Amino acid sequence: MTGTESWTTDQVVRLTGVSSRTLRHYDQVGLLRPAGTGPGGRRIYRRPELQRLQHVLVLRELGLGLPDIAAVVDGVGDPSSEVAALTAHHARLLAEIGRLRRLADSVARSIEEREGGDPMSADEMFAAFRNDPYAAEARERWGDQAVAVQEQVATWGRDEAVSAQAEMSAVHRRLAALMAAGEPVDAPEVGDAVAAHHAWVGRFWTPGREAYTGLGAMYVDDPRFTATIDGYGEGLSVYLRDAIAVYANANLE
Amino acid sequence: MTGTESWTTDQVVRLTGVSSRTLRHYDQVGLLRPAGTGPGGRRIYRRPELQRLQHVLVLRELGLGLPDIAAVVDGVGDPSSEVAALTAHHARLLAEIGRLRRLADSVARSIEEREGGDPMSADEMFAAFRNDPYAAEARERWGDQAVAVQEQVATWGRDEAVSAQAEMSAVHRRLAALMAAGEPVDAPEVGDAVAAHHAWVGRFWTPGREAYTGLGAMYVDDPRFTATIDGYGEGLSVYLRDAIAVYANANLE
DNA sequence: ACTTGCGGTTGACGTCGCGTCAACTCCTAC
DNA sequence: GTAGGAGTTGACGCGACGTCAACCGCAAGT
Asked: Where is the HTH merR-type domain (chains A, B) (predicted)?
């Protein structure tokens, strides 16, 4: 054991993974001052600074802004203020999610308008979910979730159905374009598109790796899904299934 | 009719609602050049500029960035590029929504941890949804939606239940704090908190004005909900119901 | 004619969290 | 002695404007 433990910038960088620029920035804005400086003006950090940094990083991970983080970290000994800050932050996040959902909805409808015509009515679109000769099979193969999704979709009003349909249409068209362009299913752009698909599915439920892969399989195995999806491009259902498999393996747990 | 129609900056401001600063900014970045300038360097806009501005504003409404808008608006006569831009934008929105959802989830769990203890287990929390002696009544009063929600909740895995529970807990605690602080249900801060509640409910379904108001009523009428919600503060269910009513009237259709 | 006031004009800064040069210093290894 | 590697302090850039600041033109009131 050396008498006084201390770390220089590069050591902190290796320990924590933050960039040296970030450390300097935190010093500059007063969020994390080093314990002192060594030869050549090198920053020296000790235990309390590392602990403070750890706290900062946790809060940063949660998406708080630096001023908020500073307020929390400086108000040590007052755990209630931390909860209050996180709660307020959480509320902001939910509000932002709501805003983006409405925005995505508008954009999708807008795309539908510009595409003109009647690319597929809401009725057609969700026929695959509604009157379901496959309900029993679905329950067997994908569990109660699929059935619950069907039930939920069945209760939608016009507006929600149109909105969901418009969004799905946009996602499928994007995928169809990528397929037509010859992109392999493991191309990063395809990954992005599948991420959008996964987010869209999030309207119903949030599948994990296995469930999502299963959903992809269903697209190929259930002719109602196959028909709907291939309406956007011949073979899209198979392409999508494979892309989903790749995505799920890489990004879900 | 005057021979040449033209509008000055302040007239355009009144017509369109954009700020004069924004018009100058659009001029500066080349997104919307005025047709010419009058005495004192005043900007003069004519019909084509107003049409272009309208197009710009539509796209801005949809959340596109100015460079993207410029690309679309300049590529007149090529409607496919517009659809492509919107589709890409839509995908970005969905990705962002997914990111924020995961973030909100983390934040909520984090709050739960800090709150310590076991403020209410996931089991307790959703007991109100599961084994339901009230199912028949619910179906009668709030239609098939409530039942579909129950079915969906019943299928959740541990992770999703914990996540949803943590988020709900955060929302309720925020509301309880506002109630304890004596905020009236029509205070703007309470409106924000209810917006967060509405966004949270969006995990299950997106209620309109009537449905949301009905949900609020259920919080008071159904003792299982009342008990759960009042666990965060005596009388919170009534407070929340009233706050929801105010919010729904003001913000939903 | 002079003042007041409104509304336009052109800069220029601030926002948020750093990434990314640029120019320089310091220490170490060869 | 010199090259190399890593640190240091600026300073700019990002996105879409909001917000002064300083100045000018024009019309109405005194």
From this structure: 6-75
